[in-house]
Amino acid sequence: MPPLFFAELRYRISEVPVAKSTDIPLHFTNNVISNKGAHRAPEKGQTSMTTDFSPWLNWIDTQYDEMLNSTIALAEINSGSLNAAGVNRVRQQLAEYFSVLGGEMEVIPVADYEHLSASGEIETFPLGDALRIRKRPEAPLQIFFCGHMDTVFAIDHPFQQLKWLDDETLNGPGVADLKGGLIVMLKALEALERSPFADQIGWEILFNPDEEIGSPGSAPLIADAANRVHLGMIYEPSFPDGNLAGERKGSGNFSVCVRGKAAHAGREHHLGRNAVRAMCDFISALDDLNGQRPGVTINPGFIEGGGAVNIVPDTCISRFNIRLEKPEDEGWCHDRLEELIAQINQRDGISLELHGGFGRKPKVLSGANLKLFQLAQECGHSLGMQLEWLPTGGCCDGNNLAAAGIPNIDTLGVQGGKIHSSDEYLKVKSLTERAKLSALMLMKLAASEDRRWLEET
Ligand SMILES: [Zn+2]
Questions:
Q1: Distance, CA 81 to ligand 1 centroid (Å)?
Q2: Where are the strands (E) in 267-392, listed by range?
Q3: Contact predicate 76/86, CB 8 Å
Q4: pTM (2 decimals)?
Q5: Rounded distance from Cα 397 to ligand 1 centre (Å)
Q6: Distance 23 CA to ligand 1 centre (A)
Q7: Cystine design at 244: which of 47, 174, 330, 411 (Cβ 3.0–4.6 Å)?
């Protein structure tokens, strides 16, 4: 990675003569947004500069109709995580939209998704391909942009249509989570590319196909990008009130298969080994772990097994999720799970197998991450938004990036709510508002001479 401190910029921002694009308004509004007295690096080396970012922010306002239309077009494509064809259509559409930025594009296949079936077999499902776009890998500041293309709504889910709830609120699958965010990312980067600040920032975008199932296929791509970047900007929706997600819990998804022995329930009941009973005992003991360690919650969420009631059931599967607050909670959970599994496996004729693991580490905020939030807050303030960052039990790719040591904000997408339900909505005004927030952050980062704070642990 390039060093984060340069004694002198190649040019002073105030000396940058003109924007490259001809259609940027040249007048300055009253609402001049300046970095004077605003965010600055904690150490010496910062030179005070007054910079007017408003031409590029104002340009974003002119893009509202296009942003809305593009968001609608993306949301009209079903891209449930296992609908690989739909996810790939979204990818093709994004490749077209993002071609305006002039980066180098690469389509990257990811590993198939593995899933424990009701019969206890591992099934595999192909996923859509990821799309990576890179530009200026030699620039002094390298930023990772990420947004997922998939939604939680499978191709046969009843929620497929968009509808206006009122003039400002659009209801539709993925409008907030996070197709609107993809367009926010696009316009923020377009504004940067049109500005004279662009050459300070190199960027790498990853559109991944599988975030809603825990990013099993794309996690290696995120970890790989972490080797090349200084910070991350991820376009999950903000909280409904507009605030950003700060610390996030870690999460693990697990599947359990218990096998016993089938037998006729009347004639040879004594020869059977009941897998459903063994699973029930396992789940009860598992659920009893709740409350034993602060910050750790366990949710048995699914069970399926058995068949005809005149047969002792020989197979039962279940799925559960664990959330945890601290990285060290993982070891505690593994130890408890091993104990429970050993207890069940001691039973005559019963075997229990556990699949899965902790795909998302807890997102703990480093010093650099806190400063990045302060930058977002200041930029929001300049734009008339009051932004706080709040802890959440939810997870996303920001967890993965933080686990790799990269400070990031992962809720830079649109303002909306009721995500993962048929009531999901997007506050359409937030399309331009949030694009301006990201664009201003990028331009301020570009204009800052000392970025060593990004290395704070
Ligand atoms: Zn999402």
A1: 11
A2: 297-305, 311-312, 315-324, 351-360, 389-392
A3: no
A4: 0.87
A5: 9
A6: 34
A7: 411
Q: What is the DSSP letter of 421?
A: S
Which pLDDT score is estimated for 2? 64
Q: What is the mean pLDDT of residues 14-43?
A: 34
User: CA torsion, points 193, 194, 200, 202, in degrees to nearest 10?
Assistant: 0
CA of 368 to the centre of ligand 1 (A): 24
CA 416 to ligand 1 center in whole angstroms: 12
Separation of CA 152 and ligand 1 centre (Å) = 9
More confident residue, 184 or 15: 184
> Mean pLDDT throughout 134-144?
98
Asked if pLDDT for residue 11 goes beyond 50, the answer is no
* Residue range 291-296: mean pLDDT, rounded: 97
Give the three-class secondary structure for 86.
Answer: helix
Ligand 1 center from residue 433 Cα (angstroms): 19
Distance 189 CA to ligand 1 centre (A): 20
State the average pLDDT for the chain. Answer: 91
Return the exposure string of 58-85: e unless at least 16 CB atoms fall within 10 Å of the residue's CB, then b.
bbbeebeeebbebbbebbebbbbbbbbe
CA of 196 to the centre of ligand 1 (A): 32
3-state secondary structure of 81: coil
CB environment 229-266: b (16+ within 10 A), e (fewer): bbbbbbbbbbbeebbbbbbbbbbbbbbbbbbbebbeee
Angle subtended at Cα 383 by Cα 449 and Cα 197, rounded to the nearest 5 degrees: 30
Task: Report the separation in Å between the CA atom of 211 and the middle of ligand 1, taken as the mean of its atom positions.
Answer: 7
Enumerate domains of the chain plus CATH numbers: 13-248+363-455 (3.40.630.10), 250-360 (3.30.70.360)
